[in-house]
Each structure stands twice: as structure tokens, then as C-alpha cells.
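Go through this chain.

——
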Amino acid sequence: MDISENDILGWSRIFALTLGMGWAAWMDHKERKVANEHWMVWIKPALFLWALDLMAQGADWTIYLTASAAVAYASGAVIGRPSISDARGGSRIDLIVFVWYAVSAVGLLMGALEYQSTNPLNVMLGDADRLGSLWWQTLSVLFVILIIDAAWRFRLLHGGADAKALMWVAILIPNWSTVPLSLNDATSVALVALPPSLALLMWGGLSFLVIPFILFFRNIAAGNINRLGDLRLAWHASKINLDQVLQRHVWLLTTLIELPDGSTGTHHRTRAPRTTPSREALQGSVQALAEAGVDEVWVSSKLPLLVFLLPAIAPLVLLGDPMVLVMPLLGL
């Protein structure tokens, strides 16, 4: 059985994706954060494999620098944006990053001029010039990273680690051309498909749909549903002992309120707070509940997205883009 360059690149990317995402998911599960050093390490094989891919396709210097522009923008999520004041003050790293930005911008602009005659529609139809098509595919990675960054800024992605992980996936697997789709090749022949990073996010998001049912039946089995109001919480929260709150990664939903008769009672919020309270504020809430004689409270678990993205690699490789599979069922 002959093994092509695409097969080697594809399985190497999936291997790196599994290891890098697996390590990140473990850290996200244990600490609810992933150190920037993790992405600094795992961006290296991603860049190496992307460079090999571009080299195999005969990319010119404008395409390499367009790819560099995508990486440069994504780097801001890890190393931060350079400061003009720091650069003027002699900061070497800021000067280097500014030069990186400038060189990448020149390559991006020259690529746009070089391939301005290539129509994106022709790229989707497969009728475009080879290098022109490659330039647009490379540029699309920058667009994907911009979308992910915007989702992070507007809190559609709650955690910074989630956004950094998806940016890393966008660089590691920039398109479907080398992904070894095992069971269904609909994605590889589709005119329009989600980028692999966003398809991975969608596969991971689908697993969230079963969580409410799992929590509901667990609460029934644990006897946590004692009144009609508990049904509002049973789908997305669970009840634990008060002394466990500070030891687990949860949002406390149970609070104290003053009743009309002047006494103090408990109130269970249906939503987690928009901003995570400080450790000191949480300790104060727990202490107040303990003094009020509350033993059990409702909490909402802080579910780490990366833990759900890790198993989503399997359907990504086996089936490809979920939207390509769903759209024909909807008659689209």
C-alpha cells in the first residue's frame, strides 16, 4: 500500500492534534487554565507541518508571508501585542514583533496584488490557478483566526484557553486537503465547508447537548428534586455539600436573601454569574451560608471546553464537517 505525502502530513497533523489537545484538556480539567507555554511548545510542530505542506505545493514567498501574517495575529493571544512606547524605549521583543508584523503585512499585500485576478468563487469551484487558490486558502486561515478572536472578545468563547486552542488548530490544520477522512468523503468534495478548527468546535459543542439530560437523571437518582422550582435547576446544575464548594470548580448558585418578614432565606439563581467571583468573595458567600445553617447548595460546574474538543477529534477525522452532513438532510 503506497503512502502519499498527503497521508503523511494528514496523519502527522492528527497525531499532533491529539497529543497537544490531550495535554491541554488535562490541564484545563485539573486547573481550569492552560499556560501560554503549552501553546508556545505546540505551535512549533504546527508551523513545521504547515511549512512542509506549503513547500510540497510549491508556494511562493508571498504565500509564506501570508501564512506568517495569520500566525503573527494569533501570537497576540499568547505573547500580547507589542507596544509602541516599549519599542521606542528599546524593548527588543517589541521591536522584533513589529518587524514581523511589517514583513508579514508586505507579503500579504504583495500576495493580494499578485493573485488579484483569482476569483474566490473559482477557488471554491476548483477552477482557479493553483498558486492563486493556495494563496486564498492560506489567507482564509487569517479570517478564521479573526473570527475566533472576535468570539473571544465578545465572550462567545468564555475562556482564553479555548480561543488559543482553536487558533492553534486553525494553524495546525489550515484546510481539509490533508485530513484523512476515514468514513465519509463528503467534506473533501463539498463546495463549501467549515474550516477544520470551527468544525472541531461544532463537534465538541454537539456533545454539550447531552449534558442537560445527564444532569437531570443524576439529580433524580440523587433525590435532589424535591419541589417544582428544582426542575429549573436540575437540567444544568447539581446539589453538593457546602463544604465542597471551595474544593471544586463550580459557580455557586445558592445565595441568601432577606424575606419580606425580615428573616433570611435562600435563593437559587438559575444562571451562573457573568464574571467569576474572586476567591475571597466566594469564601465570604460560603461562610454566610454556613452561618445561616445551610448544608447543601446548588452549583453549576465550570465545564472545560477543551475536554469536549478532545473526543471531538474522532468524528472530525471519521466524518469531516458536521454541517456538510446536515445540510443535505435539510434540503440545502
